[in-house]
Known about the structure:
By secondary structure, the protein is of the alpha+beta class. It is built from 3 helices and 3 strands. It has helices at residues 15-22, 26-35, 51-60, and strands at residues 12-13, 41-43, 46-50. Helix 1 (15-22) crosses helix 2 (26-35). The termini are far apart. 11% of the residues are buried.
Amino acid sequence: MTTAAQSPSPVLCTVKDAAALLRLGRSTVYELMASGELPFTKLGRARRIKRADIDAFVAQLPPQSV
């Protein structure tokens, strides 16, 4: 029996990665970052978002009533 090794979830995500995780467009992620709703870190010219901050952002979203 073989088990496929799963790569661990990245600690820092690119904007593209965050957009894929959140199922949003890149420009929406940039807007969330600019408004301060989604914290990010700037490393040189690159912007990175902590996976924990993505999870916290999702956790604080209000439930939608139908």
